[in-house]
Design brief:
It is built from three helices and four strands; from the N terminus they run H-H-E-E-H-E-E. By secondary structure, it is an alpha+beta fold. Strands 1-2 form a two-stranded antiparallel ribbon. A two-stranded antiparallel sheet has the order 3-4.
Length: 101
């Protein structure tokens, strides 16, 4: 159900952000997130992607990872290219390795 996807989306994002919060407590504090990565995440978290199925996380750097059903790949690719044309996009799936678009 949609409520469950929303709960998973929030939980996955919050878990990745716990790690980034630790970076602010180091001495000296540092930050990998960029304004751009936070804007993109906000769009996906608010369900403004091509579907409400996207689940987003962030690695230890500024890189975002959006997980979605394979049948939605073309819609998510078009979304990223339209709203964030300046960033490189990698599409990956189990067993094939990442491909730069």
């Amino acid at each position: 159900s949609q409520a469950k996807i929303s709960d998973v989306r929030r939980l996955v994002w919050e878990e990745s952000q716990d790690m980034h919060a630790l970076f602010h407590t180091s001495n000296p504090p540092f930050r990998y997130q960029t304004e751009q990565s936070l804007r993109i995440a906000e769009q996906v978290l608010k369900g403004k992607g091509p579907s409400a199925n996207g689940v987003i996380t962030q690695d230890a750097g500024a890189n975002l990872h959006v997980f979605f059903p394979e049948q939605e790949r073309d819609q998510w690719k078009a979304f990223a290219e339209k709203f964030f044309p300046q960033i490189p996009i990698l599409i990956d799936q189990q067993g094939t390795g990442a491909k730069l678009l």
